Sequence to fold (379 residues):
Amino acid sequence: MAQTVHLSCLLALLVAGLAEGFNGSPGGQDPGPRPLELKEVFTLFQIQYNRSYSSPAEYAHRLDIFARNLAQAQRLQEDDLGTAEFGVSPFSDLTEEEFGQLYGHRRAAAGAPHVGRKVESEKWEKTVPQTCDWQKAAGVISSVKNQPHPLTQEMCNCCWAMAAAGNIEALWAITYHQSVEVSIQQLLDCDRCGNGCKGGFVWDAFLTVLNNSGLASEKDYPFRGDAKRHRCQAKKPKVAWIQDFIRLPEDEQKIAEYLATHGPITVTINMKLLQQYQKGVIKATPTTCDPQHLDHSVLLVGFGGGKSVEGRRPGAVSSQSRPRRSSSYWILKNSWGAKWGEEGYFRLHRGSNTCGITKYALTALVDQPRKKRPVSCPP
Fold:
């Protein structure tokens, strides 16, 4: 752990030096990063994220991508309206296209199936709590998952299944006071609507649970990171099930109220800005993060707000000082491991439909309608 922290600090210092090259010289010329400095940063990146390349040509190719991504992170830093910091991440040696293919799912263009917006008829309150964080409730939020195969590290585009599983686990814990960890692999193997490790949507996962009459436990049906339909073991003992799933109104106030009074929900967003993300609150414009291009599903676990400190932001690609505004935000659980972002989580601005967060807010129903009980959200 100490070595990782040391590498992160040294990497941040070298990146800050490189930012001067990206910003240009006082005379108006842009010399770019000096080759030795760039290679030093890249070497530290390889050490920190355990990267190796098959040939000198592949090394040169990834070094070029790495330099381009640092420049892109610099532009994102300048354009962001929130408190986010962009710079070196575990994905800094991937092109935008590679990143999209490996870590997202196919674009949600056709729309969700016709699911009843039953929450539309509920009486919506005018106010919601200032803060809500289901991470603070014991046993509600399971550990951060990682999409690559645990042994081979081959990618599995299963963010949709992991988000749905996290939703069911959280609601089951809230409703029945029982912590469960459900099988993501069963969602992949028994999926008849999506495409397993090649991508799917949250509603595909919910339909699979309904078709299978529940979900097995992760212990009984462990994650392999692949999907072969003939391996579907639908008769494994079940530890959780759902009665239905619903889609919430495209209204951030109503989403916040439902989140606070019922529990975590799934959302599907544009993940473009997450490739270079390090920490902080992302506040993007429709130009920098198209709210119609939705390609990644995550679990929405809370919301809050607060002021950030004005001045230099260590670790980001820019060393310039910028005034930072107070910002309301959403708290989201990702599926790229605990070493990414804010220990596996990230924050998006709340109130501007950042990256299309309101479009597909879905949640399972794990309780019978006549057995509803009030729940309270941790502040």
